[in-house]
Each structure stands twice: as C-alpha cells, then as structure tokens.
C-alpha cells in the first residue's frame, strides 16, 4: 500500500526530529488572552457602534485574539477582515497587527504561509518603528522555529522578543516570553533551564495578576520529567482549572495531555485514557491539530496496553491523519526555510559587495593601491562566502528534488497497484486460450496414437489432425505473445524517467485505459457496473504523446469517474439511478480534446480549487495518496503542453477536459 | 441443429471447432460464430429458424451480451431460443440481470468444456 511507504517516511522524519513526540507537547504561548465569551460578545457589541475605521481594525484584531483560544477558524476570519480594512484605508500599524493575527491562525494549517505573514508583519513593524509589534512577531516567528525543532533559531527569536519587552517595560509581555523560553528548553529536556524560566515567569505573573495557565503547565512538565509526581499533578490540575476559567482550550489540551502522560508513566491506563480523552475533545473543539495528535498518540498507546484493539485502531488512524498533515508540511518547510536562509545570506553578501564597490570609487584616488589590495581581499572572502552559500543552496535543492522524486515514485507504485487488478483480468483471456488449445491438442494426439486409434489408418483424418495441431501451436504462440505484450505494457507504466513523445492514436489509448480502469474496479467490487459510453471521433489526427504517461492520466480520470458514480449509487440508494461514464474525443483546430464525464456525486465548490493540489484527497486514510490528479495535471501541462480542466456540479456529475496540441 | 457462439475473441471459433470436432464431423451439431452482438442479430435475422441455442459472452464492446439477450427475446419469440450466457466475472448482478432477461443458463470463464458439452447434449437430444 502506498500509505505504508508514506508512513515510513513520516516515521523516519520523527527519528530525525529527535526526542520522540515530546516536542509537540511543549508548545509555546501566543498571548495572555483572557478568553471569555463575555469578552467576545462585548467586543462584537463595540464593533457595532459607530467608530473610526482605525479603531475598527484594532477591534477586529482583538476579536481574533479572543477567538484564537477557542476556534482557530473564526480567528482567521476576523484577522482577514481586519487586514482588508487596514489595507483599504492605508493603516500601516493596523495592517501589521492584522497580519500577525492571521499568521497565528494559519500556523496550524499552513506553516510556510504563517512564517511569510509574520515576516511581512515584522518588516512593517520595523519600518514604522513599532517595537511592540516587532516583539510580537519575533515571538511568533520563534514559535515556528520551535515547531520545526530548530531550538537555536527559536530561542534567538524568543530572547530578542524578551529584550524588546524589557526595554518597553511591558511586564505582561515579559511573562509570556519567559514562559515560552522555558517551554523551548523543556522541549529539549533541558529541565533546569526550563524550570528557572518558568519560575521567573510565574513570580512575575502572580505579581501582575495575569493568567498562569500555560506557566503552570510548563512547571507541571518539568516536575513530571524530574520525577516530582505529586507536584506535577498539582501543577497540571491548577493549570486545568485556570484554563477552564479563561476558556483557553489549547492550554487545557496541554495540561490534560500532560496529566494523561503522567498517569501512563505510572501504569494507570484508565486514568490516562480519561484525561487524554478530555484533552482530545479540547483540541478537537479548538481545531488544534497538534493537540489532537498528542492526545491520539497517548490514547493509541493506552488502548494497546489494555489490548483494546478497536479503540487503539481508531486513535491510531486519527494520529496518522494528523501526522500526515503536520509532518509532511514540516519536512518541506524545513527544506524551504534552509533555502530561504541561504537566499537571504546570498542577497546580503551581494548588497555588501555593491556597497563596497561604491565606496571604493569615492576614495579610489586617496586610498590607491592599499585600498585596492584590501578590496581584493574582501572580494575574495565574499566570493568564498558566496560559494559556500551556493553549495548549501544546491544541496538543499537536491534534497528537495529527491523528496519529490520519491513521492512521484510512490504515486507510481500506488497507481500500479490499482492497475494490477485490471491487468490480471486482461491476462486471463490469453491464458485461457493457451490452456484450451494445449488441452485440445493433447486430445488430437491421442486420436492418432492413443487407444481410440482407428486400426485402419485413415490418412485423410491424420492429415486433418496434423493441420489442426499446427494451427493450435500457432494459436498458443500468439496468445503467449499477447500475454507478453500486456505485461510489457504494465512494466512501461512503472518505468521511471522521461520518454519521447511519439505520434499516438488517442482513440486506442482512450479505449484501452477505459477498459483497464473499469476492469480494475470490477475486480475489486464485483457487483459494480456502469454504463460506458464512448464517442470517439473517426478522423482523429495522431497526437504527439508519451503513451504510458497519458495512459496513466486517462486511467486516473476514469477511475475517479467510476468512484464518483459508485459513491453516488451508494449514497442515493435510488433504484432509478443509472451510473454512467462517458468519454468523447474530438478534433478542434490545432488540438485534440478528450472529455471524461460522469453522473456521480460531483465536486463541492469549496474543494474544486484544491483538487489539483498535491496531497489533496477526499478518500479515507490508506486509500489514495492525493497525488493522482496533481501528477495528471503535471503530465498534461508540462509533459504535453496541454490543459486539464474540470467542471462539476454537486449531485449532477463531473467533467474533466484534456486538451492536447495536435 | 445449430448453435450460435457470440464472442469478441475471434479465436473462440477455432477453439470450438477443435473441441467439438467429433460432433461437427458426425453432423450432430453445427456451430456458427458471430464476433459482436450486432453481428449476431444480423445472423439471426437471416437464419432465425435454424438456430436453437445461442451461447454468448456478456462483456463485449458495443452491444453487450445482455443487450443481445433482450433483443433476441423481443424480436424472436417463436420458436423459443435457448440462451446461455458466459462471463468472466462471476458477479451476482450480471447473473440476476441475465436471468431476469430470460437467459436459460449461466457459465463463468474459463469455460469447462466437459461441462458445456454435457449441457449442450442435454439441450440438444440427437
């Protein structure tokens, strides 16, 4: 199965990432948001009152803050509103604030985009000399690096944020930075440092009367890891009570999971399950994927320990979904951020070099030969630096490319798996013929030499039998050849590397692909049947194509179409519904068009834009890699210079149109 | 006494002719062949009264075996033609459809010729 390969990759990632799953639990704090629905209501009320656009932007940001602890989706909506308004009225400070909120809301679903948004907000803060906003963004970016387990970068951002907070005299900010630093140390099991910073944060927070829900969780973690069990329980419980008071579902999730981990370590599976479930619910309500992952991981282990296979399996599959979403994204991100840093370094080097050149021109007359020598040295050093940057960049690009190649190969194998069913069926016919012709030949030979031989030799009959034998041997050879070419075709499908485009009979390819896809599905689900409607243009010009690539695209489209009608048939339970998949080929000026249409479930508008994206899939875990349509799109556009488009209506059907230049 | 075999695989003809060589030579049974549903209908229109048994594959491009079955049942009510359907998929759906359309028997591929011979002998008392 393709999934198991993917899982292995994820596991390999986990190993690279260091100490087990502890990392994700030590999540830093975003802000001291005293989240109460009362607060949300009163903010909503304020928003309805007349006010300046400027105030409105800030109110929207505050609303986003409040909602972030409860529902990440809604937080994103308000951040977007604030951003649009700020941009419309040219309010730079507001734009920066809104971008920061947007980043916080995006961090769960799209790490790369979140980082980009935070950096944009940081640039605005720097150009407008807005130190509070800068501190906020330094913290947010630090959190991302901690997510990526880059402790050095993460801590360096946190400490910059801490310094700014201290300069501003903003103690509330300082509390959070201290606690975040504590959690970053905790993540790498540097428990003494973690404890010092959490305790500093706690003392300060108590003095200021600000929330301590996250700090208590951090203290609980340190206590648990240091074996101070009773204290750890007390800290977690206190954090749970406070998290409930301020309705902070994320810290609630952390503390429940912390407590559940503690019980698991003590071998009390029932208590562990109880608290992990509560943690799971809190994260689920908030839309906090990492929290869901951590709770599911614990539950899987607990249920396995209790030999409760069903429940373990349920949480295991949840865990896999979360891991796929989070780790796949993070691996790519780590590579990209490497890339990004190298690009920045190269740009800085280039800028410095340009500045040096300008200065040289001004002082050239005075500085003379000495300056020239110094410059030569400096330039030499820059050249070396650039060379190093280039090497690092090339290496990270190569890594990215390998990762991509592996994914493409995995999709190919998955595709092959689907194809095998269809091909096994194709092979059945020639093999039947080989068997039958061989058997009938044995009978013929018996007739001349065996017991039933005519004692008076009948030359005519013998001649006839010999001719029959010769014919049968030819048939056996022909059908053997037919089986060989079917297998050869299958191997071609799995071959890596690019092939030449050669003039191809599209109608034949369409026909073959439709048959393979249909048979592939029928071998899996015997009772499935659909009406197949092929309308192939008679005078279709040959089209330059790589037939095994284009065949994959077509089989993929047909298989999707069959799945869509199958799904509708199952859902609708309408005896009058007749599943139908049709394909037409048509020559249009300059190109050839293939339309694959089904009357299946259709694609909801919300996801239509995503279907060509890699890893997007609507299939359950374990089925489909989410790469089929993305690769198909790639094959048609980059591989053949054509287009692949989709039109679909829910509960009506879907039509994919492939256009290829003739 | 004719048997019409309908299959899109043309080699089925040679196979049947070899398998039933004795019966054909003795004139017991006669086989005709059609390689699509459409061809089969055409043949039946020309030689209707001669054909007693139709042996048809279900999964054929164009007119499927099931389509052919319903056409035959509609168009040629008298004398009743015995229809045996052959399919590579032993699926319940095809079986139910074939039986509902009035098929007399149902075989799955690969065809066991000994069984087929017995069934034909039973249907065609010589």
UniProtKB/TrEMBL annotation, chain A:
GO terms for molecular function: ATP binding. It comes from the Bacteria. Keywords: ATP-binding, Coiled coil, Membrane, Nucleotide-binding, Phosphoprotein, Transmembrane, Transmembrane helix. Pfam families: HATPase_c, HisKA. It catalyses: ATP + protein L-histidine = ADP + protein N-phospho-L-histidine. It is an enzyme of class 2 (transferase). PROSITE patterns: HIS_KIN. CDD domains: HisKA. Its EC number is 2.7.13.3. The chain crosses the membrane at residues 362-380. Residues 422-662 form the Histidine kinase domain. Residues 383-413 form a coiled coil. The keyword Translocase does not apply. The keyword Chloroplast does not apply. This is histidine kinase.
UniProtKB/TrEMBL annotation, chain B:
This is Response regulator. Pfam families: Response_reg. It comes from the Bacteria. Residues 2-124 form the Response regulatory domain. The modification 4-aspartylphosphate is found at residue 57. PANTHER family: CHEY SUBFAMILY (PTHR44591:SF23), STRESS RESPONSE REGULATOR PROTEIN 1 (PTHR44591). Keywords: Phosphoprotein. Transmembrane segments: none annotated. It comes from Hymenobacter mellowenesis.
